[in-house]
Amino acid sequence: MSQQQISLPAKLINGGIAGIVGVTCVFPIDLAKTRLQNQRSGKQVYRSMMDCLIKTVRSEGYFGMYRGAAVNLTLVTPEKAIKLAANDFFRHHLAKDGKGLTVFKEMLAGCGAGMCQVVVTTPMEMLKIQLQDAGRLAAQHQKPVMMSPSKLVAANGVLSRSYNSGTVTSTPRVVSATQIAKELLHTEGIQGLYKGLGATLMRDVPFSVVYFPLFANLNRLGKPSPSEQSPFYWAFLSGCAAGSTAAVAVNPVDVVKTRLQSLNKGASEESYDGVVDCVSKILRKEGPSAFLKGAGCRALVIAPLFGIAQVMYFVGVGEYILDNFPPSFMSV
């Protein structure tokens, strides 16, 4: 695909399809990542990723592994589409006379893409984390319950009263992601959905700065000639390698973001007043190794997710769809 002829609708379609396919494949691992990151020392319910998945299936059923998937599948399309299309947009405008980009400009384009995507990423992660972590809280209280993947266990009181309060949920009730969103909007306004925005920026901007230049350079190694594209399998492997590397690099910030966005706490779990307070408390009470919690899971989630995304992107699924099934609003 020529960078000089950017088709934004096609790239949005590519990013959307890639996001849906990728999330469907790796969501259980993402759930394990969230639960492992939210565990505190001395209050561990799960020993590893496999232990988490096994216990989740036993206590919540197979679909318990997909708790929160509905929120992710709904919002991952615009999130991945914005990320990939924004990077391509910035690369296109930073290039001069069709010449290749320097590494600095590639990083700059990635930075722009990361800043654009948080508009969707922050509320998506906010709602998803509540749904994913509900099973851990229930298991911690030894009250596992069977629920659908789009539901969570929340306190009987108003949700906003339990934010970061460290209170224990004694009598669970079923609350949907829509109810959480409505409650947040009612009590805190739009900023309620953007809790943890700073930490999300601190994660996604560096991720994009590392990922996109690394992918571009790895993918370039697989090109038969400068004028040809790399094979699809090379694009997939390059996306996997760049994605897993970037994911592990920013995992400490992802741990902080997860902790800040978790509204309900288990027994004796501390609350945080912000990024600095969260970092200092984790260091003091759990040590530096706590920042690597879920790193393996995150690498396993991001690697295929971005590998699939780059295959969709470079094969040109969106271009094919628009060429063969042009929607009426595109022809105006």
From TrEMBL:
Localization of this protein: Mitochondrion inner membrane
Organism: Kryptolebias marmoratus
Protein name: Mitochondrial glutamate carrier 1
PANTHER family xref list: MITOCHONDRIAL 2-OXODICARBOXYLATE CARRIER 1-RELATED, SOLUTE CARRIER FAMILY 25 (MITOCHONDRIAL CARRIER: GLUTAMATE), MEMBER 22-RELATED
Predominant localisation class: mitochondrion
Known catalytic reactions: L-glutamate(in) + H(+)(in) = L-glutamate(out) + H(+)(out)
Family per record: Belongs to the mitochondrial carrier (TC 2.A.29) family.
Residue ranges crossing the lipid bilayer per the database entry: 12-32, 299-322
Example of a GO biological process term: malate-aspartate shuttle
